[in-house]
Design a protein that fits this description.
Blueprint: H1 22-32, H2 37-44, H3 53-67, H4 69-76, H5 98-113, H6 121-133, H7 145-154, E1 157-161, E2 164-167, H8 173-191, E3 203-205, E4 212-216, E5 223-226, E6 233-235
Parallel strand pairs: 2-5
Antiparallel strand pairs: 1-4, 3-6
């Protein structure tokens, strides 16, 4: 136990302000329909004396509940919210609007529907761009890591490890390669090029496939589309 040096100790909490549940408030209002205010206070708060400061305060609280009766009764009728003391609608404290978040979600899901990996940094950058489109200043919204985590949780997304990656070449990839080679040969003839040089000692990594990507929770397979060259390395 900590000993006070000057003989003064911290005053104990008096807990004078107590927030009641919606079910309790609804019961108080229902009782008030058929009884007087003194009877009501004596029934639910028997320790409060009539004409005291506490009685006046409690009376003011009850009258305020009466003005909010429709909301209190609707909350008390729900088994989920009846025992809650406060209620704030989903999205009430969000900096970005629901439409802005939906734009970010659509962008993420569009990339994943095409097999594109979505790195952890990508939703952050896209959120900043979307916020700018909706005239939200950077000082009010920074797309912090905690916001990104909340955004992913709200939309049942998470940063997951890819389970497979595969090649999905276009059907006309062979024709495209042949046309490109023909174009190069034609330019050599047109420009009168006699010698073709290649850069020496140039590191070439054909493709980088990330191990993590944003994806829906619960899916058994997290696949990422690639060109089939992720394992190839060469020095040209």
């Amino acid at each position: 136990m900590r000993v006070s040096v000057n003989g003064k100790s911290k005053k104990p909490h008096r807990h004078k302000s107590v927030t009641e549940t919606f079910a309790f408030r609804a019961a108080v209002l229902a009782f008030y329909d058929t009884h007087t205010m003194p009877k009501l206070v004596d029934t639910f708060w028997s320790g409060i004396e009539l004409r005291s400061k506490a009685y006046t305060t409690k009376k003011r609280v009850i009258l305020r509940w009466k003005t909010e009766r429709s909301r209190i009764e609707s909350m008390a009728a729900s088994s989920k919210n009846a025992n809650q003391k406060r209620f704030r609608r989903t999205g009430a404290a969000k900096t970005l609007s629901g439409d802005a978040e939906q734009d970010i979600l659509d962008w993420v899901m569009a990339l994943r529907s095409h097999g594109m990996p979505v790195l952890a940094k990508m939703p952050h950058l896209e959120a900043l761009d979307i916020a700018q489109m909706y005239d939200v200043p950077h000082s009010a919204f920074a797309a912090s890591p905690s916001w990104i985590a909340s955004f992913l949780a709200r939309h049942s997304l998470s940063l997951r490890t890819r389970t497979c990656h595969r090649q999905a070449s276009p059907l006309d990839s062979t024709n495209v390669a042949q046309e490109f080679a023909a174009t190069v040969r034609r330019r050599i003839v047109e420009e009168g090029i006699t010698t073709v040089y290649n850069a020496d000692q140039t590191a070439v990594i054909y493709e980088y496939v990330p191990k993590l990507t944003v994806d829906e929770r619960g899916s058994q397979t997290v696949w990422v589309k690639c060109g089939g060259k992720s394992k190839e390395r060469v020095t040209a």
